[in-house]
Amino acid sequence: xxxxxxxxxxxxxxxxxxxxxxxxxxxxxxxxxxxxxxxxxxxxxxxxxxxxxxxxxxxxxxxxxxxxxxxxxxxxxxxxxxxxxxxxxxxxxxxxxxxxxxxxxxxxxxxxxxxxxxxxxxxxxxxxxxxxxxxxxxxxxxxxxxxxxxxxxxxxxxxxxxxxxxxxxxxxxxxxxxxxxxxxxxxxxxxxxxxxxxxxxxxxxxxxxxxxxxxxxxxxxxxxxxxxxxxxxxxxxxxxxxxxxxxxxxxxxxxxxxxxxxxxxxxxxxxxxxxxxxxxxxxxxxx
Length: 287
Description:
The protein contains 13 helices and five strands.
């Protein structure tokens, strides 16, 4: 498995140089903004450490010297029982590879008990054991964990991302897609593959004959992602005005309130909340 994306090559070269020199840290944190592929870099490093070409994703491999830990679907967090199993694995004997590797994907999802349980293993990592943590939200990882890992920032090269996306999608709107997703190539690619409407198209249809269909489709979207794209649209509208309309700033607050309601309660009526958002957006456009 070669490094899958061109912007990851510089990170891969740096990590490989450390590995070959015997200086690769036993606790690593791979991080970058969402949509730049820190998990893919972790998978590439896994194959290097295990000295094995992986034909499928590392998270699917049943290898005795590999553990891939991530949040459970039911709770959306990494729990202490998962970390206890990771710790047992870390202190076990190597079976067939040159070393043991554990990947803690989206480490920011660890609850407090899980993070505390990981500390000793990070402080005193067993010989021939590497712990690879990935996260796009390092600010949510406890400082006690961060201080015990060597941090590697994903190379976020806009030219390389744009060139890759142009070659992959072969469409004329690559720059617009990248801008909408904050320059993150993998998020832009996934949105294109899923057929998601751009935020310009989506908001333009909120009072059209297709409004009901658009609203129904939006309810299947990731709401945090939708709000983030809408916020970028607001920034673009504000930047285009010599004397920005204050109501644009008010609507930005409305977006924040909407997301807080949706994410803060399992019983939130998302359809009703989005209807309110659409109504206020249409009022803003009417004036």
